[in-house]
Specification:
This protein is mostly helical. It contains 37 helices and no strands. Helix 13 runs parallel beside helix 15, helix 14 crosses helix 18 and helix 33 runs antiparallel to helix 37.
């Protein structure tokens, strides 16, 4: 989706919406959830009343059609903001409820609470008609999922710290006036946040002629199997989530007799769980996709409910509500257990709700956003209200039948877990919407390297300077991960050369590339000579991209000599033996030392003995550069299979050229001793004359530059192998212009000694 706002306007609007979200989350934490539940319990509410209050949270969504009627006459942000302002004002009855309790009219106090909570959520439902369009406008761009999760992260963080403050304020058994104070604080902060909403830009409105009736849009959407399947899954998960998150508060009070302050403290851990899953989802959702996360978080919900089903330590109660099982468990066990339970339940269900909304936005057409957004929240409301109300009745009926509270809760949570397992099977049939397969997604989630790469990508998105981009890209090179590939390809379009180079280095470090990356690299080779083309060329060769061979062959005519050299190497790494003659002709024709060096390396990689003659021709030339001589003899050594033996000798020679004769003869001596030792073990000493002839021939070659005796030895004792290199070296050491090179004499002696070890 493309935003109607300019980048600056979008940035400014997001900042404003984030501030509103902070105030709203602070107020909502105080005026709903566990605080309202504890407030009601202090007024003597039953489980049925608690279930009804929690059901009011979801009845809000049934008032969204009223909001749709209003947006036909008024701007959508104005409806959104006004309804939000009203919803906080209608909570004023909860401020005065404690005064009725003090005069013995608890029934009026509870009635005021129920009226205020109902009106609060009803107003919220009217205003929520603007939530999806506004959020959809704020989340425009490639970071849609990340920004939507960012909103959740802000809400979770504010909720966590608010819950902590509430817990400290409530203590063990606070007076009702403390709750009145909390309600006042929540109302004031909510009003401040609502006033900020008026400054949010209006999202683009539907054209009058294109508007469709609500039921027409809904019928068309439900006629599609993927959408219908999602709605069923979403309804079931919403029911389970609403019951689980609401009744673990009651579970803590009724089973473990925890005080108000302790339950509020557990809510802090619940908010921490929601915050943790929000941070994780923000990293993953745009790279992994919503479907695999939806399944993973649902499975996490099954795990999260298991402790409540097992209900350990549900026995006697110690001082200040710290329960112990028959007095044998340490006092800290129950608080730790309940804190982990709140954390896991909120971690899992906040995750399912967050990715459900992302999946929903990806599943529907933007033109259906308003109507299907209403359906989305109505389904959420039906599930939440029905689940909460029925669960409250169920618990009351179970305890009325004589069951212990702990047994009733075990049955409730076991039933919810069974439903979750059923949902897991249904979720497998959801369409992927471009997401990774589940196995691939799990590989990312449980990979430290991938998660580290994702955190770096988040830094990369926020970077505002070339230096910062380069630093992050360098870190991505050190932490290669396939999840970073899309962003790295984006950086290939950077106007700064240094950024493109670092992006290519990071791409080069990856184990595999997709088709998009292969095409981008080939495009870079064609369009960016003298800059990054040679790096892309190298990557194509290193990653075995054979479809690039036709393009690489054309590069021998390029003006960029770095590109020409890398093209030859890439073709060699791709095993293009058919093009080897053209590479040989080119390095003979060119006078560019760099191209010759890279061409020699390419011939070494192709490994054909027929290329040795071309490399020897380079040595025959008058006064070739020393570094070219080194590369040529090393390439020959690589072709004939003695590079590991020859390279250390060449390094020693470069350090002290006077050692060349000693190094050559020492190599002969070392190898012949191995031959003698091997022959002695086999009971034969026939190799001694052969060894003596080799030593004499080698000595004449290195001391007098006379290769005739060594040439005869090569043809006599190695000729039966009929290997091309045998005849090439036997002939080459008779040429004065070749044996004059120290490196070549050292190469021939090393080769002869190692061939003796193999064939004699």
């Amino acid at each position: 989706m493309t935003s109607q706002l300019t980048p600056y306007q979008l940035k400014k609007s997001r900042k404003l919406y984030n501030v509103f979200n902070g105030f709203n989350s602070f107020s909502f934490t105080i005026l709903s959830g566990s605080v309202i539940t504890l407030y009601a319990l202090r007024l003597g509410a039953t489980s049925t009343v608690i279930g009804t209050l929690n059901a009011f949270v979801f009845t809000a969504f049934f008032f969204m059609p009223m909001g749709k009627i209003l947006v036909r006459r008024f701007p959508i942000v104005q409806v959104f903001a006004t309804a939000w302002l009203i919803r906080y004002l209608v909570m004023i009855p909860l401020v005065v409820a404690p005064f009725f309790d003090r005069i013995g009219r608890t029934d009026i106090a509870l009635a005021l609470m129920m009226v205020g909570v109902f009106a609060f959520h009803a107003s919220r439902g009217v205003g929520m008609i603007g939530n999806n369009p506004v959020l959809n406008e704020m989340a425009a761009g490639p970071d849609r999922g990340a920004y939507m999760t960012h909103i959740q992260v802000i809400a979770s963080a504010v909720s966590m710290f608010t819950s902590l403050g509430v817990a400290l304020l409530l203590g063990r058994k606070p007076p009702l006036l403390i709750y009145a104070l909390l309600m006042s604080i929540g109302i004031i902060s909510g009003v401040i946040g609502s006033l900020m909403l008026y400054r949010i830009p209006e999202p683009p409105a539907e054209e009058e002629g294109k508007r469709e009736e609500f039921f027409t849009v809904v019928r068309r959407a439900l006629g599609r199997a993927p959408f219908r399947r999602f709605i069923i899954i979403f309804l079931t998960l919403s029911l389970i989530s609403s019951v689980s998150r609401a009744f673990i508060v009651v579970y803590s009070r009724n089973v473990y007799q925890q005080g108000d302050g302790m339950v509020s403290l557990y809510s802090v851990f619940g908010s921490l769980g929601a915050l943790a899953i929000g941070l994780l989802t923000r990293l993953l959702v745009d790279r992994v996709g919503a479907k695999p996360l939806y399944i993973t978080y649902t499975f996490a919900a099954v795990i999260g409910l298991l402790p409540a089903i097992l209900s350990p330590f549900a026995g006697s109660t110690g001082i200040d509500g710290f329960a112990s099982s028959a007095g044998s468990a340490p006092l800290w066990i129950v608080p730790v257990f309940l804190a982990l339970l709140f954390f896991m339940v909120n971690f899992a269900f906040a995750g399912t709700e967050g990715v459900a909304q992302t999946y929903f936005f990806g599943l529907i057409r933007p033109t259906d956003m308003l109507d299907l957004g209403i359906l989305y929240y109505i389904v959420y409301g039906i599930a939440g209200a029905a689940g909460s109300f029925v669960a409250g009745l169920f618990l009351d009926s179970m305890t009325s039948a004589g069951l212990l509270p702990v047994v009733a809760f075990r049955i409730l949570f076991a039933s919810l877990s069974f439903l979750l397992i059923v949902v897991l099977f249904w979720q497998r049939k959801l369409i992927r919407l471009g997401a990774l397969p589940l196995r691939g997604a799990l590989g990312v989630i449980f990979s430290f390297r991938d998660l580290r790469a994702l955190t770096l990508l988040e830094r990369l998105e926020k970077s505002r300077s070339v230096q910062e981009e380069r630093e992050v890209l360098e870190a991505l090179h050190d932490t290669p991960s396939a999840v970073a590939l899309t962003e790295l390809l984006d950086r290939l379009r950077s106007p700064r050369l240094s950024v493109r180079i670092e992006a290519l280095r990071a791409i080069e470090a990856l184990e595999t590339l997709n088709t998009e990356a292969e095409d981008a690299l080939m495009e870079d080779v064609q369009n960016n000579p003298f800059t990054t083309a040679y790096i892309s060329c190298r990557i194509l060769g290193n990653h075995g991209i054979r479809k690039a061979i036709p393009l690489l062959r054309t590069l021998l005519r390029a003006e960029d000599y770095m590109l020409v050299g890398e093209a030859m190497l890439a073709l060699a790494r791709l095993g293009d033996q058919e093009f080897r003659p053209q590479i040989e002709d080119y390095i003979k024709a060119t006078r560019n030392p760099r191209i010759r060096i890279m061409g020699a390396s390419a011939l070494e990689t192709l490994g054909s003995y027929e290329s040795i003659q071309v490399l020897l021709d380079l040595l025959r030339e008058e006064n070739p550069p020393p570094y070219l001589r080194d590369e040529v003899v090393l390439s020959i050594a690589g072709i004939v299979g003695i590079l590991e033996r020859y390279y250390p000798l060449l390094v020693q020679y470069r350090e002290d050229p006077a050692l060349v004769n000693a190094l050559a003869l020492d190599e002969i001596e070392e190898i012949t001793e191995q031959v003698v030792s091997r022959r002695r073990t086999k009971g034969s000493l026939k190799s001694r004359p052969v060894i003596r002839e080799l030593k004499e021939g080698a000595a004449r070659l290195v001391n007098s530059h006379d290769g005739q005796q060594l040439s005869r030895w090569i043809l006599t004792h190695l000729g039966e192998t009929k290997s091309v290199d045998v005849y090439l070296f036997a002939q080459a050491i008779l040429e004065d212009d070749l044996v004059a090179h120290d490196r070549f004499r050292l190469l021939v002696c090393t080769w002869a000694a190692n061939r003796l070890l193999l064939y004699v």
